[in-house]
Amino acid sequence: MEPAYDSAKQLKSKSLKSWSFNDPEVKRKRRVASYKLYTAEGRMKLSLRKSIKWLKDKYIELRYGWW
User: Fold this and answer.
1) pLDDT tens readout for residues 17-48
2) Cβ pair 66, 60 in contact under 8 A
């Protein structure tokens, strides 16, 4: 009975270590996820700027007849 308890205890401690926030792999994944978030945010801002510029240009074309 003791060996089963020890192996279960080892398995539990091993699984807890794999979810540690000090694990380099977990840190890397979080860092990469933050880079992806910044990239997506930048794309969204760029798209919004382009849309506003397009609307502004269309308004000027219609208003002043440059078409």
Assistant:
1) 556 678 999 999 999 999 999 999 999 999 99
2) yes
